[in-house]
Each structure stands twice: as C-alpha cells, then as structure tokens.
Amino acid sequence: MNESRSLSSISSIAAILLFAGLCSFACKRHQTAAVPTPPPATPTPVRTAAAPTITVRADRSALTRGQSTTLTITTQNATSVTIEPGVGTVPVNGSRQVTPLSSLTYVATATGPGGSTGDSVRITVNDAPIPAATPIRAVTPGVVDTPLTLDQQIQRAMQNVLFEFDKAEIASDQISKLETAAAFLKQNPNLKFTIEGHCDEKGSEEYNLALGDRRANAVKQYLVRQGIPESRFATVSFGEERPLCHEQTDSCYQRNRRAAYTRTN
Q: Residue 226 is part of which domain span?
C-alpha cells in the first residue's frame, strides 16, 4: 500500500513538472514572437514661398530745392511696397513723384508671403543760388528816387506763397518768392513774422485747418534752411476762414491756397 502511494506521488510530481515545462515553453515562444515593424511614413513636401525682390530707381538723383524726381519701383513676389521717409504705400510695380526739401535716402521695402526685402536710392538736393539783393526803390520820372518805407519793403519782399490743390509742398514756381524773402530777412535781422496757412473752401473745416498748418510750417522750414533763425517765426492756420476772394473759380481758389506773413514786432 505504501508502494502504491509512492507511485501515485511520483506520477503527480511528474505531471506537475510536465505542465510547468509546457507553460514555460509556451511563454518563451510568446515572448520571442517577432513584432512587425510599420513602414516609414512618407514625408509631406513643404512648399516654401519665393522671397520677394525689389529695385527702386530715380530719374534724377541730383536736384535743386523745389524740383521733383520720379521713383520707379520694380518687384517680384511682393504683395505690398512702402517707401520711407514720407511717401508710404505705393504700387508694387509703378512710379511715384517726390519733391524732397533736403538730401535724403529713400528706402523701399517689399513684403510678400516669402518675407521682406528692401532697396534704396539717394537723392541730393542743392540750394538754389541766392540772387544778389537789389535795393527796392520807388522810381518816379523826373523825381529823385525815394527809398521805400519799411512797410512797403515788407509788402514787396514778403509775398504770399501759393500752393497746389490739397498740397503743402513748395511748388517750383514759388521758390523765387522765398529766396527774395530770405534775402530781405537777412538784411533786416530784427524783423519777426507770423506765417499764416490758408486754404480754399473745399474739404471739411478740420481738414483745412490741418492743411493750413502744414503749409505755414513748410514755408517756415524753407526759410530756416536758408539760415533764418527759427525764433523769428510763429505759425498759425486759419484754414478756409480768411479767403482773399469769394468767387467759385479756379483762379480764386488758387489765391486762397496760400501762406502769408504778418509782422509781429
């Protein structure tokens, strides 16, 4: 009977060992099974926008103050173009006339989906020769020349400066008036003036006040560049409030678009 139990125990142990071996073999097969590797992803091509290009050229690079030059802009791959100083946004391919009052470099910047780039052009502005001062006298035939009074001299030398419609830049045909005024002011260093800016009746009151202010300051800055101390001038804008004439004609509007002088001492 003991022998039968021993045989039964041995059989049970053998069965357990056989089961454990089978489990171990199955686990090892499971662990060593190869895991399939997914194919590499195909990269999506990245499209890069072309960088813009720009050239800016001037038809004249040397001017006499009061003259104009035309800037020509040529671009590729640009959606917008700006020119500084003072010009702002311009067509991506086109031209713009400018009238610089002093030598400067215009910088043109082109912007597009591919970034931005720039080009520049230098404009040299030369002073117009100052005419020799000629004594202002009233001449009457048969009568000895009589010197003009100071008020008469001011009236002749300090003439109104006229402006084009909606402009505050000094026109080339007004330069001689300012040169005469500058020469007179140098001969009379104690005189001081208020420079008044005026407009025609077109446009709103607020707009014309701002435009008149720009006109007065344009005349002041021109005279300052001629060597007249800035302290000798004040500026004021009257907009459309003080017209010289009231007719609705081009010649009347032209007379009202002006800068005028009033003596302050």
A: 137-263
